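Progress report, Aim 2. The chain analyzed during this reporting quarter is listed below.
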Amino acid sequence: MSRSAAAAQRRRTPAARQRRRSTAQRRRATVARRRRRMRVAAITAAVGAAASVLLLILGLVTSSRPEPFCLDEPQAYPAAGVAGWNGEHLENAATIVRTARELGFARDGQIIGVMTAMGESSLRNIAYGDWETSGVTNPDGTPTSSIGLFQQQDWWGSREARLDPATAAALFYTRLARLDGWQQMEPSHAIHRVQVNSDPEHYARFEADAAAVVDALSGPCPATTR
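Predicted C-alpha cells for the chain:
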C-alpha cells in the first residue's frame, strides 16, 4: 500500500474521526467563548454609557435647582430667579406663601395660591384688569373690575384690600377654605371654583412653576432676637 493510501486509511479510522470532531468542537467552543466575552463587554460599555448620561442629566437638573431660601429675606432671592420668576414675582409669591402658612394652609394650599396669582396677574400687583386690557365684561354685560394679584372684582372687597397683596391673599384663602373637598380636586379646578373664571383648566399650566417657587421659598429663616 502506498504512503498516500495508508494516510487516507488512517484518516478514515474511528479514532481519527473522533480526534477531528474533538478538535472542531474545541474550536467552536473557543469561538463561542470569544463571542460571549465580546457581548458582555459591549453590554457593559452600553450600561456604563447610559449611566453616565443619566448622571449628567441628574447633575444638570439638580444644579439648576436653587437651594431653598428664607421667604422673609428678599435680598437672598436668586438673581436668576426660580422657574423664570424673579424679583417682584418672588416677593409677591412670598407674601402669598406667608399668608397661607399663617392661615394654616400646607404646601398644597400654598401652591394653589401661587398658581392663582400666576394665572391671573403673572404675580404682579397691578391696578387694572382684563376690562382695561381686553374689554372683558361680566355675564350681565358690565365691565369687569378685576385688580391686584388675584384680579379680584368689587364684590371681593375694597379697592385698597384687593391691592394689598397680603389682604388679597387672605381673601382668596378664606373662600378656598369654604370649598368642601378642595384638597381632592385638581388644583386648577379648585381655583376655578373660587375665582369663577371661564376656563377650569386655565391655571393647570402654572402648577409646576408654582411648586418650584413654593419649594424654593421653604428654606429656614434665621431666628429673630427680641
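The chain has a mean pLDDT of 84. Residues 14-64 form the longest helix (51 residues). These observations will guide the mutagenesis work planned for the next reporting period.
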